[in-house]
Amino acid sequence: MNDKLQISLSGITLANPIIPASGTYGFGDEFAELYDINCLGGISFKGTTREARYGNPLPRIAECGNYGMINAVGLQNPGVEHVIAHELPRLKSHYNGCIVANVSGFSVQDYVETCALLDKEPIDILEVNISCPNVHNGGMAFGTSPEAAAEVTAAVKAVTTKPVYMKLSPNVTDIVAIAKACEAAGADGLCLINTVLGMRIDIRRRRPVIANRYGGYSGAGIFPLALRMVNQVARATSLPIIGCGGVSNAEDVIEMMMAGATAVEIGAANLTNPMVAKEIIDRLPTLMDELKIEKLTDIIGIVNHE
Amino acid sequence: MKQLTFEIKTNEQIAKNVYRMQLSGDTTGIIPGQFVNIRVEGQFLRRPISVCNVEQPLNNTTQPLNHATPLLTIIYKVVGVGTEAMSRLPIGTQLDVLTVLGNGYDLSKSGDKPLLVGGGVGVPPMYMLARQLREMGKAVRVILGFNTKEEVFYEEEFRALGCDVTVTTVDGSHGTKGFVTNALDGKQSYYYTCGPLPMIKALIQAAGTNGEVSMEERMGCGFGACMGCTIQTTQGPKRVCKEGPVFPAEILQL
Ligand SMILES: Cc1cc2nc3c(=O)[nH]c(=O)nc-3n(C[C@H](O)[C@H](O)[C@H](O)COP(=O)(O)OP(=O)(O)OC[C@H]3O[C@@H](n4cnc5c(N)ncnc54)[C@H](O)[C@@H]3O)c2cc1C
Ligand SMILES: Cc1cc2nc3c(=O)[nH]c(=O)nc-3n(C[C@H](O)[C@H](O)[C@H](O)COP(=O)(O)O)c2cc1C
Ligand code: FES
């Protein structure tokens, strides 16, 4: 282990800031065939809901050239009880780093019940994905209104002692207002960004590629957007931030941290290069030497210091 | 799953818009019906392509190798930017390949008279399967379906394995006129198939569910991590890239 890479999130020490992002890493099984996943600072597991979900119709995936991909998986998962009984113990048995439990819901009650169940489990951080539509409010995503975001934050905080990180959607006019609302409602940290709503059309068949018409765009192409949002939020709140969106290499990690992120999630890049998280961790020390960075904690939000 | 580098040894057109690529590299562990996922320069997602053949000594056989390193053969049709780019790759190009992906066909179910049905670019995975079934001493019947004569490939290659081969073309320009289902005789002990969805549906309707089917879906990762390829089956959701691509016909909900 290399102390220069260590960071901490709400009192939890991570060996390094690298965390595979929810939905792009399953529960780590496939990647464990290729490398020892214990090198990872943390793992954010697949978005888990109160009940099992099949998700959206196919096709769920669209190519976006060099820049990324669109997904409309629709939160396919076996439900929180199954995750607690099967996937989590399996992950726990071969991974001893920070486990980030990513939770989704379609009502405040959903979030509360799922988080209350996970509160008793050996997970380290609750990452609450509020990009989901609220079925009790015309399907508008919780993460698009400061009031709804605050309501979920407060409701979840009331049922858990785990650190609660709210995962923000970029599909809003003012992400700072949402971030501040989460902070005021008691969030312990923030994770941003989730995918950017996008679309592709099959010009030969004259119809959308994704069966659900729209989907979440992610990958290298969203990096500048994610970086800007992390920076805006870092300047406006005092919460620790997990930066996410388009991170593809060690340079991007440094940039995310300089913008204000304490840890960094890697999403779509895992799907195209399953070794990417390990390659980044291996490359960081050399890159830090080149950039004369003694320890990573020195650069968090460095561009925000006057 | 393995992530490996392969080198292109041949890359040539073998039928209308259809190319065969032979790659040298480590082919260990691959069984018939599995696929590889190939990184293509300029594209974000990899391109999944079935394994058509691997040339290496099989278990318990001492068949001589005619190459220093084993060869992996794939056959692909140019349908868009990724496959178009693949068709232009020169010999010697190093490819980043995820291999040993998917479950593959279950050869133990074949019985004595297995039937293999391939439609279009569903033909390639049938080749390695046919070869191994022949090596097991099975009487293999193969039906290859194409639209028209200029799309036909691998007819002779299957014959050279000692298979009983029928080719069908929709327009009748080669072999039997019509669809693969026109060539069924109902005498198979079991069937294996890969091809376009309408063909698979027609085959199941005509031949029943005593067989297995290779499915195709758009993939995010190709190795089980993203849930991008999950189909519904009578046994619940299954990832085409991981629990598949081969499924027993009886559990499919087409
Ligand atoms: C398990 C599996 C095995 C396959 N085996 C073969 C084979 O042996 N030979 C062969 O010619 N083709 C095969 N295909 C189909 C092949 O993957 C697609 O034709 C190819 O990805 C098209 O890429 P493109 O960039 O040319 O097309 P584009 O349409 O430009 O591709 C855009 C995106 O859609 C995806 N896509 C497009 N068509 C398909 C399709 N039919 N199935 C899955 N994804 C698709 C691409 O991978 C890419 O992500 C297989 C597909 C799967 C899932
Ligand atoms: C296939 C796929 C599935 C995803 N599933 C989830 C999910 O279940 N929960 C969640 O909070 N985010 C999910 N995301 C979003 C990612 O965690 C991440 O926030 C986003 O993709 C941006 O990062 P990236 O550009 O590095 O991919 C998913 C992304 C992808 C590509
Ligand atoms: S393509 Fe990612 S799970 Fe099948």
Characterization of this structure:
The complex is a heterodimer of chains A (306) and B (254). Chain A contains nine helices and 16 strands. Chain A has helices at residues 29-32, 80-94, 108-119, 146-157, 175-184, 223-236, 250-259, 269-272, 276-290, and strands spanning 7-9, 12-14, 18-20, 42-44, 61-64, 68-71, 98-103, 125-129, 164-167, 189-192, 196-198, 201-202, 207-208, 215-218, 241-244, 263-266. In chain A, helix 4 (146-157) runs parallel beside helix 5 (175-184). The longest helix of chain A is centred in the first third of the chain and has 15 residues, at 80-94. Chain A is globular. With 254 residues, chain B is of the alpha/beta class. Chain B has two domains: 2-101, Beta Barrel (Elongation Factor Tu (Ef-tu), domain 3), CATH 2.40.30; 107-214, Nucleotide-binding domain of ferredoxin-NADP reductase (FNR) module (Rossmann fold). In chain B, strand 8 (114-119), helix 2 (124-135) and strand 9 (141-146) form a beta-alpha-beta unit. Chain B is globular, with a radius of gyration of 17 Å. The two termini of chain B are 28 Å apart. Mean pLDDT of chain B is 95; it is low at 57-65. Chain A binds chain B through residues 23-26, 29-31, 33-34, 46, 54-55, 58-69, 71, 73, 76-77, 209, 219-220, 268, 270-275, and chain B through 1-3, 39, 42-46, 81-82, 98, 217-221, 223-232, 237, 242. The structure holds flavin-adenine dinucleotide (FAD), flavin mononucleotide and FE2/S2 (inorganic) cluster (FES). The site of FE2/S2 (inorganic) cluster has 13 residues of chain B, from loops.
